[in-house]
Amino acid sequence: MKLYDECFNGVEELLARYPAKRLIPNTQAQWKDVGKNQIIFQSDTAFELGGGTLPAVSSIALTDKESFVGNDEILLIGNDLLDIKKDSPFARIALLRVNEEKMGTGNELYQTIRKIEYTRYHLNPEGYMMRISAFTHREAARVSKNAVKNGLSFADVGRLFIDEYKKQRQVEAVKLLFVTAPDFPYDKLSEIMEKSEKITTALDHLMKNVKMDCGSCKLKDVCEEVEALSDRDFKKK
C-alpha cells in the first residue's frame, strides 16, 4: 500500500530535524472518554490548542509497512499539557499501519479509509474538547482547568486515540504525533499531509467514475499517480 508513502517520508524528514519525545501512557489508570460531545466554557478553559489564527494541523496516513509504523507509539514535539500556560499552536498526525488484505479493494477500500479517518469524531476525552473542521482539515482543542489540575497529558489523549483506532479490525499499529512547539514549521507539515487528503479524494472520484474536466482539476496529477501506484485497488469488485 504505497499510496501515502510520500506523506510518511515527509513526516520522517521533519522528525529528523525536530526530534520528538516518546510518551509512555499510564498503565495503572486510563483517562475517561465521556462518550459524547462536551462543552468547555471559556471560564473553565486553561488554554486552547490551535485556536483562533494559530496553526492547527490534523491529518491521517495509512501504510502496510512496519518500517514506517512498527508498534503503537505516541510522540511529542514541544510542551506537554501540564507545561502549557497559554494558547498554543497545535498539530496531531495519525500514522497507521493497516492489514492491506483487510482493507478491501475498489469502493470498499475508499469506505474503509474514511471509516478509519472518522474515528476522531467518536472520541471525547474528559476535559479535552476537540473542534474539527473537515473542510479546512484543522483540529483545535480546548483543555479545561480541571483536566490540567488532574494531570491530563498527551499520553492519556494518545492512548484513547490508539484504542479507538484499533477498534477497526484493519488497523494493526498506530503512531501518533502531537506538536505544540512554537517554532515548528506547521505550514510545511500541513503541505505534506495535504497530499493525504488529495489521495483519498482522488480515490473517491475514481470509484464513482466522476466525469471531470481533468485539464482544470487540481487533482489531475494526484489521480494519475493514484492509478499508477495501485491500479488493482481501484477496480470495482
Architecture overview:
The protein is an alpha/beta fold and 237 residues long. The protein has 7 helices and 8 strands. The chain has helices at residues 5-17, 100-103, 106-117, 145-149, 154-165, 186-207, 220-229; strands at 21-22, 45-49, 56-63, 73-77, 90-98, 128-133, 138-144, 171-179. A 5-stranded mixed β-sheet has the order 1-4-8-5-3, with helices on both faces. A 3-stranded antiparallel β-sheet has the order 2-7-6. A hairpin with a 4-residue loop joins β6 (128-133) and β7. It is globular. The two termini are 18 Å apart. Mean pLDDT is 86; it is low at 229-237.
Concise overview:
The protein has 237 residues and is of the alpha/beta class. The protein has helices at residues 5-17, 100-103, 106-117, 145-149, 154-165, 186-207, 220-229; strands at 21-22, 45-49, 56-63, 73-77, 90-98, 128-133, 138-144, 171-179.
How do the strands line up in the largest sheet? 1-4-8-5-3
| Count of individual beta strands | 8
Q: Which geometry do the CA atoms define?
A: globular
Q: Helices and strands: which structural class?
A: alpha/beta
Q: Please report which band the strand proportion falls in: under 5%, 5-15%, 15-25%, 25-35%, 35-45% or over 45%.
A: 15-25%
Helix content: 25-40%
Rounded mean pLDDT is 86
Rg, Cα atoms, Å: 18 Å
Low-confidence stretches: 229-237
- Give the termini distance in whole angstroms: 18 Å
> How would you classify the quaternary structure?
single chain
Largest sheet: 5 strands, mixed
Annotation field: number of helices = 7
Instruction: Please write the string of helix (H) and strand (E) elements.
Output: HEEEEEHHEEHHEHH
